[in-house]
Amino acid sequence: RAKELGRNNYQLYTESMNQKVLQRLDIENSLRRAIEKEEFVLFYQPQIDIKTGKIVGFEALLRWYHPDYGLMPPMEFIPVAEDSGLIVVIGEWVLETACRQNKKWIECGLEPHLISVNLSARQFQRSNIVEVIDRIRSSTGLAPELLELEITESTAMQDLSFTIDVLNQLRKKGIRVSLDDFGTGYSSLNYLRQLPIDTLKIDKSFVQDIRANSKEEAIAKTVISLAHKLDLTVVAEGVETKEQLLFLKKEKCDKAQGYLFSKPLPAEEIEKMLRDKKCFVIGEEVDN
Ligand code: C2E
Ligand code: MG
Ligand code: MG
Ligand code: MG
């Protein structure tokens, strides 16, 4: 009896393993065709200057409308895209689409804003990454100063001398660099000191747990003042409440991004915001 049960359990186990493998293969196959089938869309989330309440930039965030599963969150398919190498073409599509969109807004007569684009580890580690970025950026005609690239701490850490070299080349071309999800990786002060970056993004896990006298409050305060001493711009991500914003304002954090202001939105809705010159004051909208 026990033996039988054991065998059944084993069978169940392998069946669910198989299912996982099959689902992954299925995602990989449909990912392969997603670009040509135009299933990808970029959403844009505003970044707000905490001093003025003005929108100063946007982060481009990838969305996939899967034909069977519907809207798929990036965390579910980006790891598959990384493992299969598909992230390279997807990443190029993202970069081109974001640069082109930003250029289009400017051509419409809207005020220029910074656009931030996420680079994945595998995409960043390609030997020709600087040429690829430069070629795509210049083909869209977007000024390099209006493009910012986000890499995570763990991407930056994988090969420090390669990272420093690539970031130096990008910045020499006028492109800005941001260190994403700061605080979730190794956060070594030794490499922070060496990395040629412009911006530091405090991870939302710290921002969301900010409470008076909490450890997160102490960490956020320290990261903001450290970043300023290193001459970096600080962005807080995942800002959801007025209390969090007031704290960030008090600590002189430069920019904020989060649901308090806006969720990531399709380009058309962002365009409306820009036309209206939408402005925020400590979480409250004011008419301009
Ligand atoms: P990330 O780069 O750290 O992006 C911020 C994430 O936080 C986004 O999730 C955004 O929607 C979410 N977020 C913003 N404000 C709030 C808030 O107030 N509360 C909460 N709970 N969440 C907030 P999203 O769009 O699901 O993207 C998740 C991650 O997927 C990104 O994290 C990034 O690592 C990756 N990703 C997204 N688009 C791309 C892309 O085009 N290329 C690459 N390589 N990675 C991407
Ligand atoms: Mg990011
Ligand atoms: Mg982030
Ligand atoms: Mg994050």
Automatic annotation (TrEMBL):
Query: Could you tell me which residue ranges the EAL domain spans?
Result: 24-278
Please identify the protein, giving its name as recorded: Diguanylate cyclase/phosphodiesterase with PAS/PAC sensor(S)
Question: Which organism is the protein's source?
Answer: Acetivibrio thermocellus (strain ATCC 27405 / DSM 1237 / JCM 9322 / NBRC 103400 / NCIMB 10682 / NRRL B-4536 / VPI 7372)
